[in-house]
Amino acid sequence: MDPIDFSLYLVTDRGLLPQGKSYLESLEQALLGGVTVVQIREKKTDTAEFLEIALQSKALCDRYKVPLIINDRIDIALAVNARGVHLGQSDMPIDVARKLLPKGFLIGISCNTLDEVRRARESQADYVGLASVWDTQTKKLTNVPIGVRGLGVMLEALDGSEVRAVAIGGIKSTNLIRLMHGSVSATNHGLDGVAVVSDIVASHDPKGAAQMLKSIFIACKKST
Ligand code: TZP
Ligand code: MG
C-alpha cells in the first residue's frame, strides 16, 4: 500500500462549521484545497450516525484518493474500510488493536508527553499526533501545551524510528511558519505533517484555508 502523505491532516468537527455550510460541502472544499489525509472525529454522535457520516466521508475521500482515518472507533474504521484508526491514550491499547485489525491498517495515537511518545515508539504505532502545540478552543486540554520546544523534544525521541509524526493543537496559517522553524527544523526526524481542525473547518473558505496551510508547510519543509 502507498505510504500516506501526512502533510496536511484534516481532523473534522461538525460543531465548528460556519452557519449555512454543510459538513460534506466543507469536507469537499478542504479536499479540493489539498488536504492529504482526513480523520473523522465524532465525540457526541451515536453509532448509527457516526457510521453514516463515516460512509459518506469515505465515498468523498475515495473520489479524491485521500485516505480516511477514524477517531476512537475500530469497529467503524473496519466497517467503512478506512485506512486507519486514531487512538487516544485511554482507548484500546495499540498491541490489542493491532491484533484485531487487518495487516496494513494504520494505527495512530495522540501523545501529550515525552513518555507517551516513547511508549508509542515501543508499541510500533504507525504515526503519532503530538499535542497540543498551542492552546486551542477545539478541545479541552488536560496537559499544558507543549509549545514548539516541547514538540522538538518529542521529535528527537522518534529519531531513527519509522513512526511518522504530525503536530496538532492551535495550528493556523498565521503561526505555521513559527512552528516549522526553530527547534522543529533542528530535529533529525522532522515533522511529517500538521493536523488542523478549526483553521479549516470553521473557515467560510475551507479550500483557501487548506491551500494556504499546505503551501506554507511544503515551502517550510523544502527550506529545511
Ligand atoms: N487533539 C489535540 S488538540 C486538538 C485535538 C483533537 C484540537 C485541535 O484543534 P485546532 O482547532 O486545530 O486547534
Ligand atoms: Mg480517543
From TrEMBL:
Name of the protein: Thiamine biosynthetic bifunctional enzyme Thi4
Single Gene Ontology BP annotation: thiamine biosynthetic process
Keyword Nucleotide-binding among record annotations: yes
A single MF term (Gene Ontology): hydroxyethylthiazole kinase activity
Superkingdom, natural source: Eukaryota
UniProt record similarity statement: In the C-terminal section; belongs to the Thz kinase family.
Residue ranges of the TM segments: none
The keyword Acetylation is annotated on this UniProt entry: no
GO terms under cellular component: cytoplasm
Protein role: Condenses 4-methyl-5-(beta-hydroxyethyl)thiazole monophosphate (THZ-P) and 2-methyl-4-amino-5-hydroxymethyl pyrimidine pyrophosphate (HMP-PP) to form thiamine monophosphate (TMP).
All residue ranges annotated as the Thiamine phosphate synthase/TenI domain in the record: 8-200
Keywords recorded for this protein, A-Z: ATP-binding, Kinase, Magnesium, Metal-binding, Nucleotide-binding, Thiamine biosynthesis, Transferase
